[in-house]
Amino acid sequence: MRDFEILFDHGERSELLDPVYSPYGRLGFPTPQAERPWIFANFVQSLDGIVSLLGRHASGGDISQLEEDRWLMDLLRAHADAVMMGVRTLMLETVLGRPRPRGPVFRIVEPTLQQLRSKLHRGPERNIFVSGSGALNLGDYAAFDGDKVEAIVLTTNSGAERLDRQRGSHPHVRVIACGERDVELSAAVRVLREELGIRYLLCEGGPNLYANMLREGLIDEKFLTVSPVEVGQEVPPEQERLDHELLVNLEMRPTIFSGAGFLKEDAPWWNWVSCRKVGDHQFNRYRVKRAGVKE
User: Which tens digits make up the pLDDT trace of 126-148?
Assistant: First the structure.
């Protein structure tokens, strides 16, 4: 693996002086608020802002195609008390059948970064899946086996009732109800902070979850890998479609942010905290500007 070339870095110093940081350089985070975790996101996109090709090459890895980007994902996971994602991300990865038929476990792969997580006292690896309906057969997904990573589901009251019926086979899966019709994300992250002690939370998407969290002011910063490829937003007619894409007539490839956007007056602006490169790939870190906070 190659070292990251640091173009500039105005971020915090690392909590530890550890040689595992040497390929990347320093990486630290601010002290989180008392009422909720410090929440940072991680995405990879093409030069034209696309985060998924859809079809059989729908994962971010198909956009990145870089070992160092996968390593950085593990580095960020090592600093997070938990990783949060929408259940659609889990379902998509399972449909793709990579790396196993029942989907991924979403865990740190690199042993030295597993050790770093232990040194940072982040506790056991935890995945948090957001599903408003709770319409999940937990046994269909390796992520809920609980042998490698703890699993938590954020859902609604009705979703929790559905999942409670699977308590006998999956008693180790924690279900947290926050909301009647939709998951109330602001309330949910407070519960994660107060009841589970989660101080640093990594959001790995997808675009719907990220957009909903950003609209509620819950994203503090994001790490963005820009891959030197341009793919276009409209799905080419010759591309093979997955069954669920055909059902909803999915014609446009997604960007990081999905759903209703902002007006000019309330769109969030960001501070550019750091920039690195490996070959022609760019690795950026941005921190959202808060009203009334001196930069």
Answer: 999 999 999 999 999 999 999 99
* Residue the block writes with tokens 């950085």: 72
In angstroms, what is the C-alpha Rg of the chain?
Answer: 19
What is residue 30's three-state secondary structure? coil
Q: How many domains does the chain have?
A: 1
Q: Residue 208: is its pLDDT beyond 80?
A: yes
DSSP 222-270: EEEEEES----SBPPTTS---HHHHHTT--B---SS-SS---TTT---E
Per the domain annotation, does 168 fall within a domain? yes
Q: Where are the alpha helices (DSSP H) in the chain?
A: 60-64, 67-79, 87-96, 111-119, 157-164, 185-196, 207-215, 243-247
> Rounded to whole angstroms, how far apart are CA atoms 156 and 130?
9
Secondary structure letter of residue 52 according to DSSP: -
Q: Which domain holds residue 189?
A: 5-11+49-288
pTM, to two decimals: 0.94
Q: Write the CATH number for 160.
A: 3.40.430.10
